[in-house]
Design a protein that fits this description.
Helix content: 40-55%
Number of helices: 10
Strand order of the largest sheet: 4-5-6-7-9-8
Number of domains: 1
Largest sheet: 6 strands, mixed
CATH superfamily: Metallo-dependent phosphatases
């Protein structure tokens, strides 16, 4: 009889412990699912495509046909084998993959632009390391056939000017179909792709080729924007392009003295705003900046490199948006730009990703609660916490 009673008690204890263990597993699983999956949907779901003036008076079918929906992000900096710790890689690359895939699923853009520094160690990578980095990138940033991906080169992909070689440039071009001086026209909108690393102006082989392509493209665009009744012998044999003023896409920003005039929660920290920028390192040189504006007269310039947000106006009428980094490794509050663009106008809006600090706070709070639950279950609270333990015990008894 005693043996049977003892067996029953042990069975009940085992059942209670298994039940408690199951509850802990459910709790931990719920926190993980929320922090690693659901939070991306909750945050990005709040982002809405901006309305462009010309598209406000159209119905949905006309808007879908005429408005180009573009996502612009920058500076993903996928870590390499030299400086990249496996845990750092795992954490930051998961964040970027979930952010990108969630944004594609929820927002369904027509085109995505990545403004350089795709890799952190492209300038040093061996062929094998490069192949591995490319494989990881293609897994993280895979996209459906309904979306186009355009990748611009940055200094970390091929090195600064003094590190840049034809081999590195060709290697990047082969993977991403990138060419400096390339024109992409979608829905009558002209995008000019610039290898800003090659805008050194010293006549190096890569620089000379890149600038020659840009000059030729500038001539085509300028001829296409002339009025039909304007006669120009130089334009008689030139292939006509859409007359829309181009949008410049590049990694380096055009020249500005510093980020002193930049504002917003994701701009440069106050203690760094007044640090002067170094030409050809932090920003393009004044000469290269003047050249690009003179050649293309763009209606918008989009750049990256600084990892922080900034909006400046060149010559009193040409806006430039510096897009912040997409990675937690470079900032706590990464983001991307959403653009609704038509040939005559555009509208931009920023979409913030989950803050790394907030997710860390959730994990810390969940961890503390988990410890409290375990201590209460095994009645291991120290005297000051007896009251809480009795409350939990009473709740369990009920």
């Amino acid at each position: 009889m005693l043996s049977s009673s003892s067996t029953t008690v042990k069975g009940l204890l085992l059942k209670k412990r298994l039940c408690f263990l199951l509850k802990l597993v459910c709790f931990v699983s719920s926190v993980l699912i929320f922090c690693e999956f659901l939070i991306y949907y909750i945050v990005i779901f709040q982002c809405q495509w901006p309305e462009v003036k010309g598209g406000a008076h159209m119905d949905k079918k006309e808007t879908s046909a005429s408005v180009l929906k573009a996502i612009i992000l920058a500076d993903t900096h996928l870590l390499g084998e030299i400086k990249g710790h496996w845990l750092d890689k795992l954490r930051r690359e998961w964040q970027m993959e979930r952010s990108f895939q969630t944004a594609l699923w929820l927002l369904q853009p027509d085109i995505v632009f990545i403004l350089g520094d795709v890799f952190d160690e492209g300038k040093w990578s061996s062929p094998q390391a490069w192949a591995d980095d490319v494989r990881r990138f293609q897994k993280m940033f895979k996209y459906p056939v309904s979306t186009e991906l355009v990748v611009i080169v940055g200094n970390h992909d091929i090195g600064f000017h003094y590190e840049m070689t034809t081999y590195k440039v060709n290697r990047f071009e082969k993977v991403f179909n990138f060419t400096s001086g390339k024109l992409i026209t979608r829905k009558g909108i002209n995008f000019v792709i610039v290898n800003s690393v090659a805008m050194e102006g010293d006549g190096c082989a890569v620089c000379h080729t890149s600038e020659a392509k840009l000059v030729a493209l500038s001539h085509k665009l300028n001829c296409s924007q002339q009025k039909p009744n304007h006669s120009n012998k130089r334009c008689s044999d030139v292939e006509k392009l859409p007359a829309s003023e181009p949008i410049l896409l590049q990694h380096y920003p055009l020249y500005r003295k510093s980020d002193a005039d930049c504002s917003g929660e994701d701009s440069t920290p106050p203690e760094e705003k007044n640090i002067p920028f170094k030409e050809k390192y932090d920003v393009l040189s004044q000469e290269a900046s003047r050249k690009l504006i003179w050649w293309f007269h763009p209606r918008l310039i989009l750049s990256g490199h600084t990892h922080s947000a900034c909006e400046v106006v060149h010559m009193g009428k040409i806006p430039e948006i510096s897009v912040p980094s997409f990675s937690w490794r470079n900032r706590n509050n990464p983001s991307f730009i959403m653009g609704s663009i038509i040939p005559t106008d555009f509208s931009l809006r920023k979409c913030f990703l989950p803050y790394e600090s907030r997710i860390f706070t959730i994990y810390c709070a969940a961890g503390a609660l988990l410890v409290i639950l375990i201590l209460a279950h095994f009645q291991l609270f120290t005297p000051p916490f007896y009251f809480a333990q009795r409350l939990i015990s009473k709740h369990k008894a009920v």
